[in-house]
Amino acid sequence: MLEAPKRGLPVLRRICLVAILTLAACAPRGELAMLDGPAAETREVFVGTTRGPDRITGAEYGDSRSEKLHLLRFKIAVPPERETGDIAYPTIHSKPDPKHDFLLAERQSYAARGAFDADLSTALARNGNEAIVFVHGYNVNFAEGLYRVAQLGEDFALPGVLVHYSWPSQAHVMGYAYDRDSALFARDGFEELLQSLQRAGARKITIVAHSMGSALTMETLRQIRISGQDALMNRISGVVLVSPDIDIDLFRAQAQKVQPLPQPFILFTSKKDMALRLSTLISREKARLGLVEDVTKLADLKLTVIDTAAFNTGDGHFNIGESPALIKLLQATGRVAAVLEAEQDGHQDLTSAMIITVQNTTHIILRPLGG
C-alpha cells in the first residue's frame, strides 16, 4: 500500500515563511536625508553602484539594474547619541533626528571616472594607501548599505578609506530570486570599482562582504583571477565574508579558481543565523556557508572560520556589526587590526575562544569575555 504523502513539513514551512516575511515587511526602510547644520563627526565613503532608478518610486539609486557604474562620494554624519552596534536612519515615516540618526553631511556625484579616481587617490594618500570595501547583502536599499559602512567604520575605528559597492538589491523580503540574479549581474561593476582603487594607488584592499554580497564577491574574485589580473589580485590584502549566503559546494568551486586565496581569508558564521535558516527554506538548499559547523568540508582551503553564535543579536545574521559584546571583544583582542593588517597570527590574541586547526583551516569558536 502506498503511504500518504507527508504534508506536515510543507505546511510548517509555509507557516514559518508567512510569519517571518510578515514581520520583515513591517520594518521601516532607510532613506537618504541631508543633515540640517554642521556635523560634529563624519565618515567619508566613496561609492560605486550599479543601481538604476527605483522601478516604483523613481528614486535615483533603486532596484533597477544599470550597466553603467555610477560613482559618488559622501560624508556621513555620525549621530552622537547611540550605542555601539546601533544603526538608526531616517525613514519615510519619521523626521531626521541628528542626535540618533545617520545622515548625509555632504554628497558628490562624478560624471567622469578620472575625477573620481583623482579624489580617491588623494584620500588614499592621506590614509596609508589602504582601503576597506564593503559589499552589502540581500534585501538592502542604497541608504541602508551606505549608512552601514559608516557605522562599521566608526564602531571599529577602521583605518584606510571606506568604499562601498552598492549592487541592485530589490530591497524587499520577497525579492530573493531577483537579488540572486542581481548579484551575478553586478560582477562587472564590482570589478570596475576594484580597478579604480588599483589605478588610484591602493596598496592594500580589504573586502568585507555580507550575506549574498559574499556570493557576488567570490564570483568577482573568480572573474579577476581567470582574466589574468594578478596585479589587481595582489592588491587584495584580505577578504572577510560575514554570514555568507553561498552553497558550500559552490564556494569550494569558486575558491579553487581564485587560488591562492587572498590572506587572511575569514568567514564569520553562526549556527543560530535565522536569516540563513530562512534562506534554506526559500531555496531548499541546506548547505549554506554561513551556517557551517563542520569545517572538515573546507579543510583543504586556507581559511579562518569564526563562529559568533555565542553573540547572537536579533536574527543572528550580522553579529559582527550589531552585537556590542562581540564588537568589544574584537576591539579588545586586536582581531580587526589583525585582519586589516593581514597578520596571519592574529587569532593568538583571541583569549576568549576555542581554537581548532583542521589541515589548512583554523576554526575559532568565540565566547563572551569571562565565559
From TrEMBL:
It holds the Pfam family DUF900. PANTHER family: ABC TRANSMEMBRANE TYPE-1 DOMAIN-CONTAINING PROTEIN, TRANSMEMBRANE PROTEIN. This is Esterase/lipase superfamily enzyme.
